[in-house]
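Re: that chain you flagged

S.,

Sorry for the slow reply, it's been a week of failed gels. I finally had a moment to sit down with the sequence you sent. For the record, here it is as I used it:
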Amino acid sequence: MVIRTDRKTDMFGTTHAALRSAHGLRVLAAALSVATGFVMTPGAARAEDVIKIGVPAPLSGSYKNAGSDIVDGAKLAAAQINAAGGVLGKKLEIVPQDDACNPDEAANAANQLVATGVVAVAGGYCSSAALPEIRVLHNRNIPYVLDASTIPQLTEHGWQDVFRTIGRTDKQGVLAAQLMKGTLHAQRAAVINDGSSYSQVLAQSTVAALKQDGVEVAYDNAITPGLKDYGDIVKAVAETKPDVLYFTGYYTEAAVLAKNLRELESPIKYFMGNGTADPSLIEKGGPAVEGMIVTTSPLPQFLDSPRARQYVKAYRDAYGREPGPYSVYEYDAIGVTAQAIKHAKSTKSEDVAAALHALARYDGATGQIAFDQKGDRVNAAFMAVTIKEGKFVPFARVDARGRWGR
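Prediction finished late last night. Pasting the C-alpha cells below so you have them in one place:
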C-alpha cells in the first residue's frame, strides 16, 4: 500500500506534507501496521536500514486513550518523514512501549526500549513514569524528548540528554493563579491534587502563586485517584466558600468532581490543569463539565499556523478523528529528534543529544522550538479553554509578555 503526500516537502523544510489516501482507514492500516510507524515495502527493511525511536506512553489503564494518541502522533511524523526520504538514507521506526503511567512499570518499559536498540526516545505522558524512565535512559546516554511530562524535576538534574517540547508545570501554576485573580477576580480559592508527581507540583506552584498574588487559599488537599465519587470532598470544599476550585489531576477524576459539583448546585467556578485537556473529559463528564475552564498548552486545533493546520488535517485523514492534546507535541518531538539526527550526521545517541542542544530553531507544528541549557523549551506557550456545547473552545491566551488576554 502506498501513501501519497500532497507535496514532496521535507519535514525539515518550511512545510509538512499532509498524508492523503483514497480511504482514511487504508492509510491507517498501511502507515501504521505492525506499530512500525513507516511504510513497509514487500521486502521488509533490514535492521541497518532503520533508525529506531522509542515512544513510552500509557497504552493500558485509565489513560490509554491519551497514550494511544501520543503514539499515533509519533507514527504520523515518522510516516511523513519516511515518505520524504527518511533521515540519513534510512527509515524511522517507531517503537511504542506501554509504561501504564505507572512508576513501577516505567523503568522496565525504558529498559525494554534500550534492548530494542533505540537511538533516542520521544514520549512520556505521566511525569511520575517519566522520572524512572529518564534515569534508565540517562545511564545509557540515550536522549529523551518529553512531549507531555511537565514537572520541573525532569530537567533539573543537570543532565544533558533530557528535553521537552511542552511547557513546565511550575510556569503553568503561576499563570493559573494569574488567571484566577486577574480574569476571574477570585478572592478565595480551593486547590485539589491527586497525589501524583505532576499534580502535586502543579498544585504547589499554584498555591504559592495565589498567596503571592493576594488570593486566599481556603482549601488545599489531595484526593485518592480512581474513586467513583468525591461528594464528601466537594462538600468540604464548598464549606470554605471559595470563588474558584482548581483541580490539578487528570481527566478521569476531573469528570467525577464536576458531576459532584453539579449535584451540589455549587456556584463555585471550577477549572482544571492540563491533565484534563482531553476529549475523554467531555465524554466522561457530559453536561457536568459544561463551562469548565482548563489551563493547558495550546491544543492542536487552536494553534494558528499553516503547519499546525496541516498537522490537524493529516491526523484527521489518517485516523478519522480529531487529534488529542499531546499528539502534536509528540509529533514535534519526533520531528525535532529527526532534525537532530540529520544535523549530527550520526545515529549515536551522544551525538543526537549534542545536536538537540545545539539546535537553534526547529519550526514545528506547535511553533518554533529551541531548548535552554536545562533542555526545557524556550518560550513555551499556554492558553485556557472552556467547554461549550460539548466542545473545547478558546477562553484566554497568554501573550508574548506573559499576560492573559481574551
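What I noticed first: The radius of gyration is 21 Å.

Talk soon,
D.
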